[in-house]
Amino acid sequence: MILTTLESIPGKSIIQHLGLVQGSTVRAKHAGRDIMAGLKNIFGGELEAYTELLQESREEAINRMIEQAESIGANAILNIRFSTSSITQGASELFTYGTAVKLD
Amino acid sequence: MVDLIILISLLALGFGFGQYRENQHYKSIIKRESSLRDIPAIASKHLPTEFMPCTTQLVCGNVVISIDFFKQFVSGLRILVGGRVSSYETLIDRARREALLRMKEQAVTHGASHVFNIKMETSSISKGQRNSIGSVEVLAYGTAIISYKNNCLHHS
Q1: What three-state secondary structure class fits A91?
Q2: Distance from C-alpha of A61 to C-alpha of A65, rounded to nearest angstrom
Q3: Which of B42, B66, B97 would best serve as a mutation to test chain A binding (most A beta carbons within 10 A)?
């Protein structure tokens, strides 16, 4: 599976457009991490736990998108975009979408 | 009285640690930026033909940075009078540059020469008292271009 933010894959041609594919996950931070983050809010600096948490969640969203693309017979996803939105206090949705295509 | 002492000590702690950490972070950002300068990050969608043949790879970098108590307090005061909120400006600037650097570092591990079509995403993670922003997340992502020509040059 080729993933790219470009509109085409250099040197390859698109045989078939298979439409939009998407993957999303909603994650909440757990209390232990929140307490540490509360302390960090006094001193400032990077919140490594959150960085990791969001990275893992984003990978999960990408994997879901790939699963969806595979199920419709695509071998590449073009024009990938990420988006984040906070649903409620303490939980955020990580969303990724792109165009599934079949390359030669 | 006790409340006032707690507030002042928190402000002092925030100011001291916050300034120290910010300076350290800026030093590391500037150092890493100069070492990664030979990997240009380009916002263009179209790949010039001279890069072909090549393979592509999706690369991302993200970071969550928190503001310190002193700056949050100062920005609270600033909101009363309006104008430039410089305490948040440095926070977001650091987050953006750090995210870009992490993306480039990931591109380096794949042996890429350029990163194309870069997009940035900013979101506030936790809201503190009075809905003031406690920390921001910045995600930078793009397509790393791994050129066969360049790889051949490096190996020979």
Answers
A1: strand
A2: 6
A3: B66
pLDDT tens-place string over residues A41-85:
778 888 888 888 889 999 999 999 999 999 999 999 999 999 988
What is the chain B residue with the closest CA to A90?
A: B126
User: CA A36, CA A98: separation in Å to the nearest integer?
Assistant: 35
Summarize pLDDT for B94-132 with one digit per residue, the tens.
999 999 999 999 999 998 888 999 999 998 876 655 556
Q: Chain A contacts of B135, Cβ < 8 Å? A: 37, 40-41, 47, 50
Number of CB pairs, chain A paired with chain B, less than 8 A apart = 128
**Confidence check: pLDDT of B33 > 60:** yes
Mean per-residue pLDDT of chain A: 86
What is the C-alpha separation between B2 and B8, in angstroms, rounded? 10
Residue A13 burial (CB < 10 Å; 0-12/13-18/19+)? exposed
Taking an 8 Å cut-off on Cβ atoms, the answer to whether A11 and B52 are in contact is yes
Which amino acid, B108?
A: V
Q: How far apart are CA B132 and CA A83, in angstroms?
A: 22
Query: What ipTM, to 2 d.p.?
Result: 0.84
